[in-house]
Design goal:
Helices cover about 35% and strands about 15% of the residues. By secondary structure, the protein is α/β, with parallel strands linked by helices.
């Protein structure tokens, strides 16, 4: 008999076809009556397939007494109740590594687009300013600027290596200094913000990093400093960020993530000093397919009694 799997949210089509062939899937995400579905099949469900944004709540986990594993499509698992899983001995897997390079690419893209005012130049042509007013205002070179990185994990290091190729100096803040890099370490985030021209957020989400970027951090970044966020919207005090951007207390921002996605603060939509992306840093076909395959492979190994590929500690 095929193991029963609850699909909190579907992943890529090829991966879903593989799951359909190997398991009995129950699509909670589009059920007419999700509670009734859990009443009918919850006792049998042995695995959850979900995404980093949808996660798995303690209330859901408690409805699934046979649950053994949560397969999460994404690196961030802040929406998965780890305490509930730990109490029950439920395993969690995520999809690190396969998205590192694309996310770091997006980070670099936002850094350059901010400093060189890429979208301002695009609008300068489209709105007729080039013909009417001549050359657009000068921008800022990346070369010789300092990139400060909050969170020097896989993605932070990949972004730092890219920044060095542009001639940028790299500094960072995290829980502790990293022995395998020579970049300047700051024990405090305010000190890092004061030391850099661009502050890039690459840390995990969750309770431990919620609101780390405060008004004081933004003040330290200053009117010539830029913020780039490829981490989670929860890392930033979003009202403080909106105020800093509107009042030009910082130069601007490149934002791929927000506190209440897909809802973006209305005040940001009309600002020339903000570049917005719809949480798409890992959003290439190749990377998302690789992430989905990792979810499939972890479930296959679990039900075959083999070690998991990317178990969350």
């Amino acid at each position: 008999m095929k193991p029963d799997v609850l699909v909190v949210f579907p992943i890529r089509p090829k991966a879903m076809a593989q799951l359909e062939a190997a398991y009995t899937l129950h699509h909670w995400w589009n059920a007419d009556d999700p509670d009734r579905l859990l009443d009918e099949v919850g006792q049998r469900v042995r695995a959850i397939v979900t995404t980093g944004e949808k996660g798995a709540s303690a209330a859901l986990i408690d409805r699934l007494p046979a649950l053994e594993i949560v397969g999460c499509f994404g690196v961030g698992i802040d929406a998965v109740d780890r305490a509930a899983c730990s109490r029950r001995g439920v395993l969690i897997t995520n999809t690190p590594d396969v998205l590192t390079e694309d996310v770091a690419d997006m980070g670099l893209l936002l850094v350059l687009a901010c400093l060189r005012r890429l979208l301002v130049g695009d609008r300068w042509i489209r709105e007729g300013s080039w013909r009417r007013d001549g050359a657009m205002p000068l921008t800022t070179t990346a070369r010789g600027r300092t990139l400060g990185i909050l969170g020097l994990g896989r993605i932070g290091k990949a972004l730092g290596r890219r920044a060095e190729l542009l001639g940028m100096t790299v500094a960072y803040h995290g829980r502790h200094p990293q022995p395998d890099v020579s970049w300047r370490y700051h024990e405090g985030l305010v000190a890092l913000a004061a030391d850099c021209d661009v502050l890039a957020l690459c840390c995990p989400g969750g309770a431990g990093t919620r609101g780390l970027v405060t008004a004081a951090v933004l003040q330290a970044l200053g009117p010539d400093g830029w913020l780039v966020n490829i981490a989670r919207g929860s890392v930033v005090d979003e009202p403080a960020l909106v105020a800093a951007l509107v009042e030009q207390k910082i130069a601007g921002a490149g934002l791929d993530v927000f506190a209440d996605e897909p809802n973006v603060p209305e005040a940001l939509l009309g600002l020339d000093n903000v570049i917005l992306q719809p949480h798409a840093a890992s959003g290439t076909t190749q990377t998302r397919d690789a992430m989905a395959q990792l979810v499939v492979d972890n479930l296959q190994r679990h039900f075959a009694g083999q070690p998991l590929l990317t178990q969350v500690a």
